[in-house]
Hints:
27% of the residues lie in helices and 33% in strands.
Amino acid sequence: xxxxxxxxxxxxxxxxxxxxxxxxxxxxxxxxxxxxxxxxxxxxxxxxxxxxxxxxxxxxxxxxxxxxxxxxxxxxxxxxxxxxxxxxxxxxxxxxxxxxxxxxxxxxxxxxxxxxxxxxxxxxxxxxxxxxxxxxxxxxxxxxxxxxxxxxxxxxxxxxxxxxxxxxxxxxxxxxxxxxxxxxxxxxxxxxxxxxxxxxxxxxxxxxxxxxxxxxxxxxxxxxxxxxxxxxxxxxxxxxxxxxxxxxx
Length: 249
């Protein structure tokens, strides 16, 4: 069985248990896994499926299978929110925090989104992980951190932080838009694609000539993410004007 088949078989197992227990939930899914799960169960009338990441606008979510005769679920039993703080003179990134958590032996699917603010971030995790992380996470690299639990009710919606960039491209091919977004050559774009470092709408893409539509999300491992916000008019030389949104932290 391939990875998709394994995922869907696992989701079927979780869904089947909801008839007996009222509701069941997966661990945290990647955006691509959530898309595949939603597509698979779309026409299965015997299953009531929803997704929740503990915070509005979450990227990583849990699949919730709910027995219609059972009622609603308690979000506080599905998620714990932890505030991670550090000194104002220190700088930490998403990679730093995630790396520190992985170094503790924590599995990625027990962790949801990590949302950054000034000199702190909020981590969403499975409830059973909250105590362990609070006690064990004392440093991210060489930077000391302080961890405390906060109420889900205190969390803001997750907002996209985008730096807007206007550019012109020869075409709406994936490699052309990558070059405009990240400022490298077509050859370099091909290298990233061939190495499997490029994801289009959360799924790995190896096709340089893939045509993009508005709202396409491109991720290049190690470089960041960009969204194709708008496709505009055409210049006298036939180049297409585009508006790109580059993600911050």
